[in-house]
Each structure stands twice: as C-alpha cells, then as structure tokens.
Amino acid sequence: MDKTSLYDWHRSNSNNIIPFSGYLLPVYYTSIVDEHLSVRKKAGLFDVSHMGELIVSGKESGKFIQLVTVNDISKLKSGQAQYTAMCDLNGGIIDDIIIYKKENEFMMVVNSSNIEKNFQWLKSVVINDVQIKNSSQEIGLIAIQGPFSRKVLQSIIKQDISDLLFYHFIDEIEILGHKALLSRTGYTGELGYEIYASTDSINVIWEAIIEAGKNDGLVPAGLGCRDTLRLEMNYLLYGNDIDQTINPLEAGLNWITKLDKSDFIGREAIVAEKNKINKTIFSFIMLDKAIPRSGYEVIHGGSSVGNVTSGTMSPSLKKGIGIGYIDKSYYEIGANIKIDVRGKLKQAQIVQAPFYKDGSLYS
User: Fold this and answer.
1) Which numeric CATH code is attached to 7-49+137-232?
2) Which of 51, 91, 241, 245 is 20 to 30 A from 212 in CA distance terms?
3) pLDDT truncated to tens, each residue of the chain (363 aa)?
4) CATH number of 52-134
C-alpha cells in the first residue's frame, strides 16, 4: 500500500486512515460533517497526492492530445486547463481527466486507480515525436477549497493571485521559496486552488497553509467530505458513476464531447450509439428519510428502471441525495421514483443538478 509524503502528518492527526485507490489516506480528522461545512463556509485543505500526473511532450504532443481526448484543445492557451475524458475504441470512458497546457508540454491529471492503465494505454497508441512520462511519484498535490481559500493562500504567496481565473493556472509560482504549479480548480464547488509541487515542497506548503489558515477557520479535510462535497455538486466519480462500460453521452458529458472536432479514439463508436442510447445519468433527492447507496435499484411502477451509482446524506441539505442511471423513458425533472433501500421502497424525486447551488466557485 502506497503512502503520500504527508502520511506521517495524517497519522499524527487522524485515527481514521483507510486504503483508497492503493494509498493510505484519512477519511476524516474530526468528522465528515464538520469538515464538509468548514469547506462550504470557510476553508479546508485536502491531500490529493494519490492522483496521477502524466507528462506529454514533443513536437506532436498537441495532435496526440486531440487524438486521445474527447474535448477540443485547439483553442487552449498556455496557462489554461480543461476537463476532458479518454475513451476506448468502443466509446467507453477510460478515465476523466484534467489537461494542463504548459509552454512546451501537457500535464494530464488522472484518477489514482487508473494511473498505470492510462499510462500503458497512452503508450500503446502514441504517435511519432511524442514522449509520455509518468511523474506521479515525483509530484505531490494538495487542494485548498472554500470561500476563504484565496485569502489564506495569498498570505503565504507574494505574487497576486486575485485575478487567476477558473481553470487557469500559474506555472512555477514561488510559494515560500518553493516552485509550484498553482491551479484554480477543485472538486467541491467552492472557490479553490490546487497546488502541484515536488513531494518535499508539498510537505512544507501544507504545514504553512495549516498555520496560515488557523485564524480563518481552515481545517484539514479527508476523503469523506471530499465525496459529500463533490456529490452535492453532481461531480462524477470514476469507478462509481463512470467507467469503461459507459460512454460520455450516457454520462451527461455531452458538453465536453466534441464530435465535430478532428477524429479522436472512440468517436466512431460514440456517433454510432448517439441515437440508440436508452439510459441516462440522473440526479435525485430523497423525499423519505433514507440514505441512498451505490447499487440500490430505482423502481417505477413495480419494475426496476435504473440503479444508484453514488449516494449520501447531504450535510448542506440535510437530505439523502444521489446520482445514478435510469431508463430514458422515465427521465423527467420533478418525476417521483422509488429507491429500494435494503428491501424497503423509499420515495425520491428526480431533480436538476447540482444539488447545492450556493457555492463560492466563481467568487
């Protein structure tokens, strides 16, 4: 089992460390709900060093990224990031990723459970004049999220970060004498930043942020609230909500799937399936008191018409919420459905995502 460079810090501050995607990581330090609400109202700091970083360089790197991802990078400028996905020849989602365009290369940030799979797949389809390097073990990643995140971070950075736009980044910014990549991205729906640096540097920056944020209510935050926060925003989790049996259109990722750009791997299969799709991703809120969980069936008229892929009790809404897939003929915003919760049918309603609409994301 791998450990991030911050493992000793976690071990000293959390009694709730579990295996997750091959790493030992904290579920929480105090409680999931407290950490969740701190991120929504103040700020939280996450260790996400388990995520993978694949570096794509070479003269034809841009052409290669276009070939292996569904989104269009043709207008992406240096210093911009993009959410996208990679698909196999059948249109199944290999992974959902973020692409960072630097001056002379691209950085792919991939899900931890898929690092080796992605690396080997990319090498199997690589074109001439492109190099791919797996830098996951060399790079640490932490995320500061919440309405006070800019204030806390600015207190330890000399360079002004107030005008850094959403999905933009500053490469080689100096933080307390350490070089880092600072990105205005996150997985919570709040104003937030992600910091990529060497593993040694990440430890120093982490402790400095913890100290700098004390007066503003910043707390260290674990995997538990990372999941509840992303669910309130309807952000998908690979392995739960999407995988290689799902294509981007079924998953509601039409907005990043540019079928009119130059050809990409999986495009032909996705186009062929476009008018044959019979299920769709959907979001629902529990009307009865119950917590939906992955694998629960969606019931309508006595028949199973779908399944839950992610569910939780929302700390912000104080109601059960979930994501899943449903037969398209039953999908209608406002429609009532039932969720089979351990043999008992509980009332729920299909709603428009996201569940939480009061975040500071664009502050």
Assistant:
1) 3.30.1360.120
2) 51
3) 899 999 999 999 999 999 999 999 999 999 999 999 999 999 999 999 999 999 999 999 999 999 999 999 999 999 999 999 999 999 999 999 999 999 999 999 999 999 999 999 999 999 999 999 999 999 999 999 999 999 999 999 999 999 999 999 999 999 999 999 999 999 999 999 999 999 999 999 999 999 999 999 999 999 999 999 999 999 999 999 999 999 999 999 999 999 999 899 999 999 999 999 999 999 999 999 999 999 999 999 999 999 999 999 999 999 999 999 999 999 999 999 999 999 999 999 999 999 999 999 998
4) 3.30.70.1400
What values do phi and psi take at 191, rounded to 5? -50, 135
Please state the domain extents for the chain: 7-49+137-232, 52-134, 278-351
| 240 C-beta neighbours (distance < 10 Å), count | 17
- 278-351: which CATH architecture? Beta Barrel (2.40)
- Tell me how far apart the alpha carbons of residues 256 and 225 are, in angstroms, rounded to a whole number: 26
The DSSP code sequence of 291-342 is: ---TTPEEEETTEEEEEEEEEEE-TTT-SEEEEEEEEGGG--TT-EEEEEET
Give CA–CA dist 347/218, Å, rounded: 37
